[in-house]
Amino acid sequence: MQLDQFQSKQFGRRAAIIVGGQVVLLSALVARMYYLQVLQSEKYQTLAEDNRINLRLLPPPRGRILDRFGVPVALNRQNYRVVIVPEDAGDLAATLDRLARVIPLADAERRRVLRDAERKRAFVPITVRENLSWEEFARVEVNTPDLSGVRTEVGRSRFYPYGPTFAHMVGYVAVASDKELDGDPLLELPDFRIGKAGVEKVYDLALRGSAGTSQVEVNARGRVIRELARDEGDPGKDVTLSVDFGLQQFLTQRIANERSAAAVLMDPHTGEVLAMASTPSFEPNEFNEGLSSTRWQALTGDPLSPLTNKTIGGTFPPGSTFKVAVALAALESGAATPSTTVNCPGYLELGDTRFHCWKPSGHGLLDMHGGIKNSCDVYFYETARRTGVDRIADMARRLGMGQLTGIDLTGERPGLIPTRAWKRATLGQAWTQGETLVTGIGQGFVLTTPLQLALMLSRVVNGGKAVVPRIVRKPPEGDLIQASLAEGEPPPSLGISDASLQVLLSGMNAVVNEGGTAHGARITQPGMEMGGKSGTSQVRRITNAEREHKRRGPEDRPWRERDNALFIAYAPVQAPRYVCSIVIEHSGAGGSAAAAPIAHDLLIEAQTRDPLSGKPHEPVAGRVKPEVPS
Amino acid sequence: MASLGRMRGEVRMSLAEKLWQVNWSMVLLVTLLCGIGFSMLYSAANGSWDPWAMRQLVRFGIGLLLMIGAALVDIRHWMRLAYPIYFAALALLAAVDVVGADAMGAQRWLDLKVIQLQPSEIMKVALVLALARYFHGIGPEQIGRITVILAPLLLVVAPVLLVLKQPDLGTAIVLLASGGALFFLAGVRLWKFAAVLVLGLSAVPLGWHFLHGYQKARILTFLDPERDPLGTGYHILQSKIALGSGGILGKGFLEGTQSHLNFLPEKATDFVFTMLAEEFGIIGGLALLSLYVLLIIYGIAVALSARNQFGRLVAMGITITFFLYVFVNIAMVMGLIPVVGVPLPLVSYGGTALLSILFALGLVLSVYVHRDVRIGRRGVEGGL
Fold first, then answer.
1. What distance in Å separates the CA atoms of residue A561 and residue A554, rounded to the nearest whole number?
2. DSSP letters of A126-174?
3. Could you say which of A124, A339, B87, B274 has the lowest number of CB atoms within 10 Å?
4. Do A378 and A355 contact (CB within 8 A), yes or no?
5. CB-closest option in B241, B281, B374 to A48
6. Which of A2, A3, A5, A7 to mutate to test the interface with B (most CBs of B within 10 A)?
7. What is d(CA B90, CA A627) in angstroms, rounded to the nearest whole number?
8. What contacts A287, CB < 8 A, 6 or more positions away?
9. Distance between CA atoms of residues A225 and A240, nearest Å
10. pLDDT tens across B132-174, in order?
11. Is the pLDDT of residue A495 over 70?
12. Is A41 on the interface with B (CB under 8 A)?
């Protein structure tokens, strides 16, 4: 047994070496365990939590937009949709076939679902159809036992029950564009919409609310296992407009027949806009779904600019309505008194140029009252000449023209009130006296928006107070921009003397009620009488040849070259409470003929409904299907 | 008087005597390790006996009988059966190559309808038996001759090549390492190992050429795990996250998020240690490791107590193989070495692996029971 002894000894030695090697390797394992599980544990705990916890955003319901009496004009509608989960559906095509027997399903929809099913993970629900009617929704619901993997869901989508009627002021919502993404992940949710225009945009942050979050545990494939925590967030806040639902509908319908028109009705004492309409309008509900590019191009390329709110975004020569500002400038600067008289032979000669009055035969001798009442161009050529363009511009700006009024809407344009300095700076030419004359009748360079005209008249009839127009009556809580306005601080005075204002009020009363230019549109109901000022603005120069020979009637001229008709009015004359401004683009007829009748109807309607008295004229609840709380 | 007979080196023992001689504390240790395995498989199925824990339990029942049975069979019978077992295993391994079933891109299984057989697991035991058989009678005067070590070299190379072809890098490494260890224990000179090592290293570029794409990827991923965090590196990364997040005390039984939310791959088989360490922390990991060390110490003690070279080599060879399993598996899930697909012995789910390990441990027990049996240089040809 020598061999075995030898083998035993050698085996012992060599086994010891192997055991030594094993100890080294085991030590490496223990060291590695210590490193991973003790030293690096915190890092890996974080990674494990990152793996399993997903934060999901819960989009808050958008705040509603209400009229001054609480009628919702923008709300969230239940969006009934049917979705399919491919994983649960088994044979997707067969399930879609069965679904097609329950609700109509277009071939394109089928193809899209099948395509999505290949791209997405099998447990991600795919929307088959949205905006189902209640009947369709119920049919799918009843049949779900036979439709494995098919599920109904209720989402929210923005809905404007009155469509085009409020489109310009309320605006619309749409998916945020790449430029609008500000890092807020809420904006990246496929169902989330943000305000793109109008009140929806100006008050977007308040209307949005703040997103809730849901912490969910997911597995390696991303499937949600359970919800760990939930923070509901804050729903968007409601915004109340100053607009009266009834008057808005009335005004929209009243100018609906015009090709292109804009009208605004406001409270001259507070600046609250009660109605604001621009024709043509657009359907804001189209934007929710996402507009096709051809539809978008049709809207933006339309020469009648349906997307533009012309009450603030359209600028027109004010024509004779501007004489209000010219007269005040003359009176306040001392360039004229109420009794200053001017003789009108039908024209005024300056150098070798003749400036014509709208009445070729002339008005004869007129004082300021007569000048306003008859809207005599020669009277205001002369008054403007005496006052000078810079003093006219100063008054025009004090009355709110030539700059943004600051109304809480998007798309406002400042218009233009020319001065000597302006012309030198922009055109590099010296101001000419002829231009002062033309400015005196609201032609030439002068451009104003319909809202600015209403604002000018408001500031005249409210005793010279610098009211600021606004569209939102009750700003959402915490909105800093509007908070100061809501405090109800009295607007500051413009420093215009009462005597001067009285001259204008009596003149504008005469325009309507004392046989002036708009006598035909006067309100006969006692106590509702209106005062106002008409305007007809040329959009192209009348040539001498036309004037001397046969003056062409408007029907002979192309639409784009016809005159604009304007009328600004207030009522009742004794104590004005409503102010309106009407502009009809290229109407062909003068302001007193085309625009004044609209003012007449609008002011009667306004005084009949009398929203400023605090109560809606007729109950409007019930017209709208209220939002079903989800 | 049985003990006297044993001490005299006599060979006759009654069944009762043999049963008395079985190292029952080692059997208990094995049962304990398997018990940990059942609970981890129960957890891997999110707290269900299906599909793993119950089947593994049944296999353990069979394996336990197999182990005790193997322990009671005379060591000389095993010596006589060593070559037949080896060649049977080799034949099965070759059969896999021809008719084997695919699993995850590798042919490793023989579908025998009743059970799925994995011959490479059997080969790990069979190789130890065959080499021990060969080296038993080789004295110091023969071991120096190159011709003498050529035959056992073939015994190692043949199964290694077949296993590599499957391809199963992990098993090939275990076979090579345990075979090498037996050469070393048999007294093969150290310079020959050095020569083979140098030869082997110089063959690395050539070997790289023969590696499968996924094997190359695994090695590359091992060298730089962040290279491809969602591809091949994913397994290692998720395993490390699971281990690390387990910390000192672990997340608790059935509470491992990485395992139960399926971030951890192969949690019932190769990555079962990760799940254990996630749910029971470093405490649990060290406890399991201690049980393994205890079992290995038992094995070494058995080897050293044997009074015949065959028994020593079998006990040590199996212990080393067992150790290699443990080390390669744990090192792999901790990102110390590439993912090569070696199960954690007694704990990972897998029938053939469990049964072959229990059988192998039965052989160790048999060496212990028959530790005093002396076997002549010429082996057992002369009968018992």
1. 9
2. EEEE-S--HHHHHHHHHHGGGSTTEEEEEEEEEE-TTGGGGHHHH--EE
3. A339
4. yes
5. B241
6. A7
7. 78
8. A172, A173, A174, A196
9. 42
10. 999 988 877 888 788 888 899 999 999 998 888 777 778 888 9
11. yes
12. yes
Q: Which of residues 45-74 of A touch B (CB under 8 A)?
A: 45, 47-49, 51-52
Q: What is the mean pLDDT of residues B291-308?
A: 94
Contact B245 A48 (CB under 8 A): yes
A18–chain B nearest CA distance, Å: 8
Q: Which of A451, A476, A607 is nearest to A204 (CA)?
A: A476
* Mean pLDDT of the region B295-301: 95
Chain A residue numbers with beta carbons less than 8 Å from the beta carbon of B308 are 4
For chain A, the helix, strand and coil percentages under 3-state DSSP, each to the nearest 5: 45, 20, 40
pLDDT of residue B129: 95
Token pair in block for residue A603: 């002011």
CA proximity to B299, closest of A92, A142, A533, A15? A15
From start to end of B247-318, where are the E strands?
none
Which 3 state secondary structure label does DSSP give B280? helix
Is A129 within 8 Å of A96 (Cβ atoms)?
no
What would the pLDDT profile of A92-124 be if each residue is shown by its tens digit? 888 888 888 888 888 888 888 888 788 777 777
CA distances to B124, B178, B304, B317, B320 from B185, rounded to whole Å, are: 17, 10, 12, 9, 11
The rounded mean pLDDT for chain A is 87
CB contact (8 A) between residue B316 and residue A6: no
As to burial, measured by CB atoms within 10 angstroms (0-12 exposed, 13-18 middle, 19+ buried), residue A55 is exposed
Task: Give the helix/strand (H/E) hosting B4.
Answer: helix B2-7
* CB < 8 Å to B185, chain A: 11, 14-15, 18
Question: Which chain A residue's Cα is nearest to B319?
Answer: A19
| Distant-in-sequence, close-in-space partners of A415: CB < 8 Å, separation ≥ 6 | A315, A401, A402, A403, A446, A447, A448, A449, A452
Q: What do you get for the CA distance between the two ends of chain A, in Å?
A: 94
Cα A305 to Cα A514: distance, rounded to the nearest angstrom: 38
Instruction: State the residue for tokens 């290279």.
Output: B227
A3 part of contact set with chain B, CB < 8 Å: yes
Count other Cβ atoms within 10 Å, centred on residue A144.
Answer: 15
Nearest Cα neighbor of A274 from A482, A406, A449, A471 is A471
- Report the alpha-carbon distance of residue A195 to residue A476 in Å, rounded: 15
Q: Is the bond preceding A161 in cis, omega lying within 30 degrees of 0?
A: no
Longest dimension (CA), chain B: 68
Residues in A closer than 8 angstroms to B304, CB to CB, are 11-12, 15
**Cross-strand partners of A570:** A531, A579
Q: How many CB atoms sit inside 10 A of residue A303's CB?
A: 8
CA of B277, closest CA in chain A: separation in Å? 9
Among the partner-chain residues A7, A25, A219, the one whose CB lies closest to the CB of B309 is A7
Residues A324-340: tens digit of each pLDDT: 999 999 999 999 999 99
Q: Measuring CA to CA, which residue among A537, A577, A478 is closest to residue A205?
A: A478
The residues of A assigned a catalytic role are 320
Tokens 């979705």 sit on residue: A83
What is the bridge-based pairing of β-strands A239-241 and A65-66?
A: parallel
Maximum Cα–Cα distance across chain A:
155
A182 three-class SS: coil
List the single residue in A22, A32, A38 with the smallest CB-CB distance to B323: A22
Structure tokens at A196: 């793109």
Report d(CA A159, CA A64) in Å as an integer. 10
pLDDT tens for residues A355-405?
A: 999 999 999 999 999 999 999 999 999 999 999 999 999 999 999 999 999
